Amino acid sequence: MVATLAIVPQCNPITQKRTLALLPTDDVRPLLGIEPYFGQGQYEGEAYPSDVPVLQAARLHGPRIVFLGLKEANPLTAAALPSAAFKDADTVIAKLEGTPFFSVDIADFDESVVNEVIQSSQPVNSPISLVFMEPKTAMTSLDVFTAAVFAEARSMVDWNGRNKKKFPPKFYSALAGFVEPGESYEDAVKREMWEEAGIRVWNIRYHSGQPWPFPANLMLGFYATADTSAPIRTDLDNELEDARWYTRQEVLAVLNHTSGLGSSEEAPLFKMPPPTAIAGVLIKQWAEGNIRIGYSTKGNL
What is the pLDDT of residue 163? Predict the structure, then answer.
């Protein structure tokens, strides 16, 4: 859960009015990593190559920063629009007048580092204090604009956190993704396979579904046919650390491996999801030559 950093007056502990603490960049620099913050190169502290303009806004190191939007000084002018005019970044930026808002995920930081940043942001000789609060409680006292900023920030940080793949070493699973608005399930399978692994697929068949309450998703499993002689590419969207083909014999060897304490066998070639997860069912049935289309299975959720 993402916590809310709120400003709480100290004068009256009963009628305390809370509002969202919007900290300036200078206050949170210790949490942002080494400059440049955007337009980063391959190594930390290195700027992107000038001959690779696609990296001009890239952030490859440090915690994820999300641009939430710009509160324009005069909303009637809408100087930030239209996006079709964004041909020359310097010209566009020169026209913008307002306050940009960003969010940063600090969940992986040591608590002492975060507390030090908060303490240094504390106004001197002020009757207010900065404290973390449970979001639902804090939202009851926010104004419309501040509540909207917080809702967007929390949603984006939460979405990125839930979709950030954290696998142990040598762990391989089925490719997964989200259905985009206007897509069919089959189209989503084709697109995700191409974006994540550079693989073209066809003959897509639905297998089964599984509830996934983290927080409220439904996973649908599909099989598809692909050309295993085609090269695999993970550089199209850079979501995967690695992707590769495995034979039935290799997968069966992993499934039949006796792992755990006291096992005399060498470590398996790789690790895979358990049969309580839909990815594990898909892989197991394929390896055993026992694909059951329309098969329903329940995981231990």
Answer: 65
